[in-house]
């Protein structure tokens, strides 16, 4: 976005809604409707198989296709996704990380094809492409869990993309350093700022040390680094956080990298406000939460977001409908066009109160950056589990404050009496649902795609990719060749898995504790856990499992920490497990309960599969409980299918959840409940 002089009215930010589901064609219809409503940029949500490098017909993709985003398996899907949307004039954000290079290659190829159809010079069109690939793999190891490769090869893919885009797609941001999900998994403002900056340092050091670009072009590299942040409802603190981000980034670019041009040192960021802070209880309260959180990233002109996307009021219930997304867009438009927000210089300059809070965040962030750099940097702090443990501990402490009422959540732990909401009067129709036929159609479509392509060309391009991956060559050229040859998402990722291997990040559970947990209720549950174990004749064991591709593990981690603190022996192997792996672990470990965590919407497929798997293994007496974003009708279906309990975001008291799980174990073992 261009920045006007201080005497001009500031230009509005890019307005987006995060969207995509079911299929490329249906998502394309949604994008075109949103653009017609005044949206000025696109934000593409990809489904989990696409994000983690699997085709729709892979075992791990079962139940996940088209659920939390659009499936893009090959060039044909990318063509359909942007049909009738000229990419040379678009501003597109793609939330994609481990497979970012692949999706960028598909995007660039479609832009080239569009230019050729129009008779334009495709080089000029590609040079105009504007937008970003999220591509922050460090935060994937810490939060979202859609990583694939180990840290070293992942950093290489990012480095190659940065070098390629600076040379060939100069308006594209090849990476969003993404603090958004760090806040979701518990990061304090200090941790959010510090760990984001550590990631940026790791990326810039890697690009500089790769030797792919001359030193005189390094300013262009720095200028293309963007950020994606989270804004919570404590909007004064959040605004101060953004001013601290701005100051610290300018300082690092100037002092560490010697960037003299202040325009190249600008802290450029987009934002989505805090989706995880939305409540299932009294969801109408989410509307004012979203508006207040938007103020945090728009009030301070010097630290104003240049792109904003807002969640819908009902995202704690399920997938929002087009009308819900329209409401979120209108919130932005009212703020930008009806208020006088954009008419003034920074209204916080000179405030001693604001500057004191900014300085507090800066002091803490600098100290934490120094601590991480002393460990060897962000990658080393991921591999050791340090950063993950710090955030699991921070989230455990926040959960404690909520449970004891120190932190008020309106409609949840205070002011919880309510009238029936007319917004939910439609019942199941109050959220969007993905037709199960979408997955079958995607499986059939990708099999037809493979059958119709030049198989020899596809395999040759994959061989060339494997060969290049074993050298230090930039992998964008080989990836573009794969895209043009009709290679699929799963095939591209599988070829690199062969060379790079896969990775399982530390969970952070073993070292995380929350101070002050030992309250009266926790002590009661701990005694009940011990007594139940004595009655059964062994210590109670709980398996916490995340089936499928859902990598949002903070809920599972908090359950694991609380179960351990109440006296359970906890078996937690992290994310991305097959049904067979969960069943096998439950049987081998002799657990007394299996707890499944699913936030991706695949609960109706994955949970019954685990229940049936336990029965088939002769362990049908092990009760299964599940937690996640599960609509009431789906919860009823799961309970009728043999699930013992269903927990949703309204069940915020984790010690009470532990108590209920003990009750489930007692029922399963014929003990008085």
Automatic annotation (TrEMBL):
- SUPFAM superfamilies xref list: Cobalamin (vitamin B12)-binding domain (SSF52242), Cobalamin (vitamin B12)-dependent enzymes (SSF51703)
Pfam families per the UniProt record, alphabetical: B12-binding, MM_CoA_mutase
The record, for PROSITE patterns, names: B12_BINDING
Molecular function via GO: cobalamin binding; metal ion binding; methylmalonyl-CoA mutase activity
Domain (B12-binding): residue spans on this chain: 539-668
What UniProt keywords are attached to this protein's entry? Cobalamin, Cobalt, Isomerase, Metal-binding
> Known InterPro entries for this protein?
Acid_CoA_mut_C, Cbl-dep_enz_cat, Cobalamin-bd, Cobalamin-bd_sf, MeMalonylCoA_mutase_a/b_cat, MMCoA_mutase_a_cat
UniProt cofactor(s): adenosylcob(III)alamin
Indicate the family of this protein. Answer: Belongs to the methylmalonyl-CoA mutase family.
Q: How does it assemble?
A: Heterodimer of an alpha and a beta chain.
What is the name listed in the Swiss-Prot or TrEMBL entry for this protein? (R)-ethylmalonyl-CoA mutase
């Amino acid at each position: 976005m261009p920045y006007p002089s201080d005497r001009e009215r500031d230009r509005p930010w890019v307005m987006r809604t995060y969207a995509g589901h079911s299929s490329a064609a249906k998502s394309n219809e949604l994008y075109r409707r949103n653009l017609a409503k005044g949206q000025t940029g696109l934000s593409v949500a990809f489904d989990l198989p696409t994000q983690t490098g699997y085709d729709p017909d892979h075992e791990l993709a079962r139940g996940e296709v088209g659920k939390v985003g659009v499936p893009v398996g090959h060039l044909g899907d990318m063509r359909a996704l942007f049909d009738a949307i000229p990419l040379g004039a678009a501003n597109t954000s793609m939330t994609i990380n481990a497979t970012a290079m692949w999706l960028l290659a598909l995007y660039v190829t479609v832009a080239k094809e569009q230019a050729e159809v129009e008779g334009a010079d495709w080089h000029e069109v590609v040079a105009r492409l504007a937008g970003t690939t999220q591509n922050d793999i460090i935060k994937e190891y810490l939060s979202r869990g859609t990583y694939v490769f180990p840290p070293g090869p992942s950093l290489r893919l990012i480095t190659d993309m940065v070098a390629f885009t600076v040379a060939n797609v100069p308006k594209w941001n090849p990476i969003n350093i993404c603090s958004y999900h760090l806040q979701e998994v518990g990061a304090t403002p200090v941790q959010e700022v510090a760990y984001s900056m550590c990631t940026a340092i790791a990326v810039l050091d890697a690009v500089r040390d790769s030797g792919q670009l001359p030193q005189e072009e390094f300013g262009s590299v720095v200028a293309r680094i963007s950020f994606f942040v989270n804004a919570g409802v404590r909007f004064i603190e959040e605004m101060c956080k953004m001013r601290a981000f701005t100051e610290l980034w300018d300082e690092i670019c100037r002092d560490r990298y010697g960037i003299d041009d202040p325009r190249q040192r600008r802290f450029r960021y987009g934002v989505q406000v805090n989706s995880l802070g939305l409540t299932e209880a009294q969801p109408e309260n989410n509307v004012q939460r979203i508006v207040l959180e938007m103020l945090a990233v728009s009030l301070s002109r010097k630290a104003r977001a240049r792109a904003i996307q807002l969640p819908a009021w009902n995202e704690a219930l399920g997938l929002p409908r087009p009308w819900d997304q329209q409401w979120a867009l209108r919130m932005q438009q009212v703020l930008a066009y009806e208020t006088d927000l954009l008419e003034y210089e920074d209204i916080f300059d000179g405030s001693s109160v604001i500057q004191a809070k900014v300085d507090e965040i800066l002091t803490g962030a600098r100290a934490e950056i120094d601590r991480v750099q002393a460990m060897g940097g962000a990658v080393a702090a991921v591999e050791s589990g340090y950063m993950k443990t710090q955030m699991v501990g921070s989230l455990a402490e926040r959960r404690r404050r909520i449970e004891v009422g120190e932190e008020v959540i309106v409609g949840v732990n205070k002011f919880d009496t309510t009238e029936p909401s007319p917004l939910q009067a439609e019942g199941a129709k109050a959220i969007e649902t993905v037709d199960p036929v979408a997955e079958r159609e995607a499986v059939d479509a990708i099999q037809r795609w493979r059958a119709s392509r030049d198989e020899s060309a596809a395999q040759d391009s994959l061989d060339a990719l494997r060969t290049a991956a074993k050298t230090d060559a930039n992998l964008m050229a080989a990836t573009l060749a794969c895209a043009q040859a009709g290679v699929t998402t799963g095939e591209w990722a599988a070829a690199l898995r062969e060379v790079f291997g896969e990775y399982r990040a530390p969970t952070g559970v073993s070292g995380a504790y929350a101070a002050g947990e030992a309250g009266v209720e926790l002590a009661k549950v701990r005694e009940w856990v011990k007594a139940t174990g004595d009655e059964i004749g062994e210590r109670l064991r709980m398996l916490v499992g995340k089936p499928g591709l859902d990598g949002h593990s903070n809920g599972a981690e908090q359950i694991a920490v609380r179960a351990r603190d109440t006296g359970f022996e906890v078996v937690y192997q992290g994310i991305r497990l097959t049904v067979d792996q969960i069943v096998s672990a439950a049987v081998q470990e002799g657990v007394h309960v299996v707890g499944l965590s699913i936030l991706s919407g695949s609960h109706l497929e994955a949970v019954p599969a685990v229940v049936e798997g336990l029965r088939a293994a002769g362990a049908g007496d092990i009760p299964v409980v599940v937690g996640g974003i599960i609509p009431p009708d789906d919860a009823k279906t799961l309970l009728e299918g043999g699930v013992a309990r269903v927990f949703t975001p309204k069940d915020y008291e984790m010690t009470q959840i532990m108590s209920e799980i003990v009750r489930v174990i007692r029922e399963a073992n014929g003990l008085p409940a």
